[in-house]
Amino acid sequence: MSCQRGITMTKHILLVDDDTLMRRSLAFNLEQAGYRVSPAANAEDALLLVRREPPDLILLDIGLPDMDGLEALRYFKQQTDRPIIFVTARHRDLDQILGLELGADDYITKPFDLNVLLAHVKAVLRRCERATTSSLEPTVLSIDDLIIDPAAHTVMLAGQPLDLSPREFALLHTLALAAGHVVSVDDLLTQVWGAEYGGESQVVYVHIHWLREKLEVNPEYPRRILTVRGVGYKLKPPETA
């Protein structure tokens, strides 16, 4: 059984489906049911999201473009111990058997009643609640005098706490996970805002500006969050910038 820490707070669900209407509808209904949802249109984007913030549960479509759900399952299992429910239009028994043997925790076939899906989600999370708590915790990141603690959701700069919005925190955390390397604007959109924000690069520019206002000695001449023109941004210690 793939589980994680207790489920007393709002559950975070990663929804992976290339059908835009299905993804939006499911995300809306799951949020109405009290869950926090991160949507992804393909397995590659979903794997990036898992690396930044492991969800409490993954709803994974089998019929994905490029890397299908059965292949993606193997990679998810290498990165996280979170439970996975296959949501698929395929009806072949072989898919179900193979998916469960590879480590999926449950399986539901489209079309389905929303209440049936919610019952599957609740059942898997309840089984996790009864299982042994995982020792996996997000890693505290230290870049020079900048310390990011994902579990506590805090950021310290030169020993002083920074007041960041949830989105600013997620953006900084994503850059910190790839410290010293360029993260493209598209990847930032996918990992921080989700698949539905594709093409809305302006939201990244605005939040980078706000982060620089809080992190940089002189935001007009940034030395921590650097722009790589035509590509994206990278986070570096100021003395090596």
Compact description:
The protein is of the alpha/beta class and 241 residues long.
Biggest β-sheet: count, sense, barrel?
5 strands, parallel
The overall average pLDDT, rounded, is: 81
Radius of gyration computed on alpha carbons: 19 Å
Spatial order of the strands in the main sheet?
2-1-3-4-5
CATH hierarchy class name of the largest domain? Alpha Beta
Distance between the termini: 45 Å
The CATH topology annotation of the largest domain reads as: Rossmann fold
CATH homologous superfamily heading of the largest domain: Response regulator
Oligomeric composition of the shown chains: single chain
Shape: elongated
Q: Poorly predicted ranges (pLDDT <50, ≥5 residues)? A: 4-8, 132-136
Structural features, described:
It is a single chain. This protein is an alpha/beta fold and about 240 residues long. Helices cover about 40% and strands about 20% of the residues. Helix 2 runs parallel beside helix 3, helix 2 crosses helix 7 and helix 6 packs across helix 7. The longest helix is centred in the middle third of the chain and has 17 residues. It is elongated.
